[in-house]
Write a structure and sequence with these properties.
The complex is a heterodimer of chains A (546) and B (360).
Chain A (H helix, E strand, L loop, with lengths): L3 E9 L4 E10 L4 E5 L6 H8 L6 E6 L2 E3 L2 H4 L6 E4 L13 H11 L6 H13 L15 H13 L5 E4 L8 H18 L2 E6 L10 E6 L2 E6 L1 H8 L3 E3 L13 E4 L2 E4 L13 H10 L21 E12 L2 E12 L3 E5 L6 H9 L6 E6 L2 E2 L3 H7 L3 E4 L11 H11 L4 H14 L15 H13 L5 E5 L7 H18 L2 E6 L10 E6 L2 E7 H7 L6 H12 L1
Parallel strand pairs in A: 3-8, 3-9, 6-7, 7-8, 16-21, 16-22, 19-20, 20-21
Antiparallel strand pairs in A: 1-2, 1-4, 4-5, 9-10, 11-13, 12-13, 14-15, 14-17, 17-18, 22-23
Chain B lengths: L1 H17 L1 H11 L1 H9 L9 E5 L5 H7 L10 E2 L3 H9 L5 E5 L1 H8 L7 E4 L4 H19 L19 H32 L2 H5 L5 H31 L8 H25 L3 H17 L12 H6 L4 H15 L3 H27 L3
Parallel strand pairs in B: 1-2, 1-3
Antiparallel strand pairs in B: 3-4
Helix pairs in contact in B: 1-10, 3-8, 8-10, 8-11, 8-12, 8-14, 10-11, 11-14, 11-15, 14-15
Classes of the chains: A alpha/beta (546), B mainly alpha (360).
Chain lengths: 546, 360
């Protein structure tokens, strides 16, 4: 019998199922990875194992068996749980040192020489030895996560449950977090369950569980999983003419997937392939995304946006430090960086939601000096905010009609356009639903539709793919590319997924409010021939700057 | 421009009707809350618990006690000693204690000044002091002073000396104040909370239209609530007289709502969450309500507070409304009240409008 056994665990909430009949085994010293989109069931299963929510089924940890949070009390001394969200377990006004003392006290640890040595070692591993006097609120996102992790490790848990510890954290801190985990499991023989939104991190795990819609889709070593879909993965273009789940063929990111044998060369699959093959198996029909030409015709200048030395200060803190940037017509520029790098602040400054402290901004050939300058341009700019903010108490249709009205689009035109977008972007089945009831991927496309109603020239997208599942993300990028092709629209998009850089024409890397790179994707690859993926390129910039 | 205005207005009304919690809170405030305030307040004594110690052997003492009867008083309870009665008052079993000592009857019969000792629980001040008044009347009756004056009172404006309708009306005016402030602030702050604020700012629409439409929509919701409250509670349950013009009152309410909406705009400008709106609204509104004369007559306040009360729009609104309801004052004579509400209203709304406008 394995050290940790989860048998048929189901977690259900009021309206939906969190995770359905999930089982897993893990042994001391193993790192088990949970991979999947938001709402796929990763957190539900983690919380059930941690004994903090009610569940059906049985979990055993060595000889202890539990079926409920109350019965799980007895294993709590051996367990460490780090919930999702950066710095959630920390107290902003306590220093690093005070945090460690606090967690030692509430865990009732004997503070002897051995403890002090272990504590020193943790601080050293986290690279926080020099920052013991700094308040948690003044640490960077990466440091906060490392501090959260060592606070969770202080009582030497034998079962460590980490819910997305690396999401939104900069790549260097992410590597360090993984190094800490690797050391701990070797030295302490800890079972580590860790979830992640980054497919690339799967390589660091002993075994991987892929989650999709409350089910565990596949499990095993990464190499085994990739082997299992090798037969269905083809070179790009194999699907031409039948690019739809109905015909059993899907394409994305230089690869095509089909259950039938195709007369095309095979390609090396990635973990993402599992989600596409699953969609094909389940005959999940993906709406075909097509975009018609815009109704209005207009002259678009060569450079739609040009920023010179844009600076934004919040008190002593410089969120954006003299950033230059250009957005050409029909260009997709990716603004990449970790949480807190200043991406959103920069975008809000471009939009006029924050006043510009220093620097010059030209939009569509017009120098922006006052809010009056912007008023005219509002009709030419589309914006999708973080978390797809729309009116929650109005249906999709009502929301769209409201937005069309605000843009003074005549009602008959607006209704036609709404119908067309709903069809083209594949959310026509959800028109009478409230935004809160929609899957994240649908919400994402519907938010973009709302931002496109007035046929803008520039589209600003703030973290539109965060937490969205692989397939919805693939569709989203396809939609952006089609928009660019048929409308000639310029897109500025922020993301913390480095892998998405591949789909942009040009990327701007940001770190702690500064621009550290600005180049086309091709040029960046040419500059870093040894890089396997964009993550490596970003890391090399991080290292040289640090 | 007017098209956008009605689009925003309609959207806010729709949003309001879809938030069940908010609709329930507004309905409760305009019906049950006002009813409870009107029904619950008791100034005349009712069911007062009386205890007594009688060391006289009966006679005059029993004659006095026999006059204390329902519904004002429960049957007086006899105690053996002063100490027992004191303890019962301490334990809140008795509100008023009467001590007939040995000399009481003797002195009375001899025509000397007889002393009747009373113990009053002054925490229930109005009830026990009114009871005191009753007892003084009873004693006066007994002594029959040869003083040929009879008081004949004529109750004006509120012939039944009915406190219920008066309290209910005051409560309704307070509810209007609080709700319009909170509702107006919430329609703005909810956009901040849900992240739609930025999207609203990026619409090619004059922000003044949005602010006006949003605040007017909430004023209209409150006006609808006022009509409900008047129909079901003020006229329905309490049968309050309406001696003046109904429409004059509605017009005054409409103007007053705008002055409160101005306070709401200010609250919205400085709050980040609905929670903050609730806290801040209470902090700002309470002094305005205290100073308005809703709970204490203005002439009974400290002169400094009396002066400050000039700046509470609720003061003019309450005085104006009472004049309309009970006195049936003509429109011309209401002009000072309209003036007070309008001047303060324009100032407050202008200030709030500018404050929130800066965020656009």
């Amino acid at each position: 019998m394995a050290d940790l056994e989860v048998r048929n665990v189901t977690v259900s909430y009021k309206k939906q199922i969190g995770i359905k009949a999930a089982s897993l085994q893990a042994n001391a010293g193993e790192i088990i990875g949970f991979i999947g989109a938001d709402g796929a069931g990763k957190s539900s299963l983690m919380h059930a194992i941690a004994g903090v929510i009610r569940f059906e089924g049985e979990i055993s940890y060595f000889s202890e068996v539990y079926h409920s949070p109350a019965e799980a009390e007895k294993i709590k001394p051996y367990m460490g749980l780090m919930p999702q969200g950066i710095g959630l377990v920390l107290y902003e006004t306590l220093t690093v040192d005070e945090h460690l003392s606090f967690f030692a006290h509430i865990r009732n640890l004997r503070q002897d020489a051995a403890f002090k040595a272990y504590r020193q070692k943790l601080l050293h591993m986290a690279g926080l030895s020099d920052f013991t006097d700094r308040q948690a609120g003044k640490l960077s996102g990466g440091m906060m996560q490392k501090l959260s992790l060592i606070c969770t490790l202080l009582h030497r848990p034998k079962l460590l449950i980490l819910d997305e510890p690396t999401t939104g954290v900069d790549p260097l801190s992410r590597l360090e977090l993984w190094e800490i985990l690797d050391t701990i499991r070797k030295e302490e023989g800890t079972i580590i369950l860790v979830s992640t939104a980054y497919m690339q991190e799967a390589a660091k795990m002993d075994r991987v569980l892929l989650f999709d819609e409350g089910e565990i889709l596949a499990r095993g070593r990464v190499s085994e999983l990739i082997d299992s879909v090798r037969a269905y993965t083809y070179e790009e273009g194999a699907c031409i003419g039948k690019d739809n789940a109905e015909s059993g063929c899907l394409s994305f990111d230089k690869r095509s997937y089909s259950l039938d044998t195709l007369a095309a060369a095979h390609a090396e699959p990635t973990l993402e392939a599992l989600f596409f093959v699953n969609a094909l198996r389940k005959k999940r029909i993906l709406p075909k995304i097509e975009i018609e030409a815009r109704e209005s015709t207009l002259e678009i200048p060569e450079t739609v946006m040009e920023a010179k030395g844009l600076t934004k200060n919040f008190g002593d803190f410089t969120a954006n430090d003299h950033i230059d940037m250009r957005l050409g017509s029909g260009e997709i520029v990716g603004l990449l960086g970790a949480n807190g790098a200043g991406k959103t602040t920069f975008m809000k400054m471009l939009l006029g939601l924050y006043p510009i402290d220093e620097g010059e901004l030209k939009l569509l050939g017009k120098s922006i000096k006052s809010s009056e300058d912007r008023q005219v341009l509002k009709a030419k700019i589309g914006y999708v905010s973080q978390h797809f903010a729309l009116y929650k108490d109005m249906t999709v249709r009502e929301n769209l009609i409201y937005f069309a009205n605000m843009h003074r689009i005549p009602l008959s035109t607006a209704l036609k356009r709404i119908e067309r977008y709903a069809r083209e972007l594949g959310f026509d089945a959800y028109m009478e639903h409230l935004p809160g009831e929609l899957p994240l991927g649908i919400n994402q496309r519907f938010s973009v539709a709302a931002a496109l109603l007035h046929e803008p020239v520039i589209l600003f997208l703030d973290e539109p793919t965060s937490g969205v599942d692989t397939i919805a993300r693939a569709q989203f990028w396809e939609m952006l590319h089609r928009l660019k092709a048929t409308w000639g629209i310029s897109i500025l998009i922020t993301t913390h997924y480095m892998s998405e850089a591949e789909y942009c024409d040009r990327v701007v890397l940001m770190r702690q409010g500064k621009k550290i790179a600005d180049n086309t994707v091709k040029a960046l690859y040419a500059k870093h021939p040894q890089a396997r993926n964009f993550e490596d390129i970003f890391l090399s910039y991080y290292r040289s700057e640090a | 421009m007017s098209h956008i205005f009605w689009v925003v207005f309609g959207k806010e009304i729709l949003s309001f009707l879809r938030s069940i919690g908010l609709v329930a809170a507004v309905l409760y405030s305009f019906t049950a809350d006002i009813y409870i305030a009107g029904e619950g307040i008791q100034i005349t004594p009712r069911n007062v618990k009386i205890g007594y110690v009688d060391d006289t052997g009966g006679g005059i003492s029993q004659k006095i006690l026999s006059r204390l009867h329902r519904p004002e008083f429960l049957a007086p309870q006899r105690f053996k000693s002063h100490e027992a009665l004191s303890r019962a008052i301490f334990d809140k079993e008795i509100l008023v204690g009467i001590l007939f000592d040995q000399d009481f009857e003797k002195d009375f019969r001899r025509g000397k000044k007889a002393q009747l000792n009373l113990l009053l629980d002054a925490t229930a001040a109005s009830q026990s002091f009114t009871t005191l008044g009753y007892l003084q009347n009873i004693v006066m009756d007994f002594s029959k002073p040869h003083f040929p004056v009879v008081i004949k009172s004529h109750k004006l404006f509120n012939e039944n000396a009915d406190n219920h309708s008066f309290m209910a009306l005051t409560e309704m005016l307070s509810v209007i104040t609080l709700l319009i402030v909170i509702l107006t602030a919430v329609v703005f702050v909810r956009e901040k909370e849900e992240g739609t604020w930025d999207i609203m700012l990026l619409m090619p629409v004059d922000p003044r239209v949005i602010i006006l439409a949003k605040s007017l929509s909430q004023v209209m919701i409150v006006m609808a609530g006022v009509i409900l409250a008047l129909g079901f509670v003020i006229f329905g349950a309490f049968d309050t007289p309406m001696n003046g013009s109904f429409w004059t009152f509605m017009l005054l309410t409409f103007f007053y709502s705008f002055s409160s909406a101005g306070i709401g705009l200010f609250v919205a400008a400085v709050s980040k969450s609905t929670m903050q709106v609730a806290q801040l609204s209470i902090v700002i509104m309470m002094p305005l309500i205290f100073l308005s004369g809703a709970w204490t007559p203005i002439y009974a306040m400290h002169p400094v507070l009396q002066f400050l009360s000039f700046f509470s729009p609720l003061r003019y609104y309450i005085e104006g409304s009472e004049s309309i309801f009970f006195r049936g004052t003509a429109f011309v004579d209401l002009l000072p009240y309209f003036g007070g509400v309008l001047i303060l209203g324009i100032l407050l709304y202008w200030y709030g409008f500018r404050k929130i406008g800066k965020l656009f």
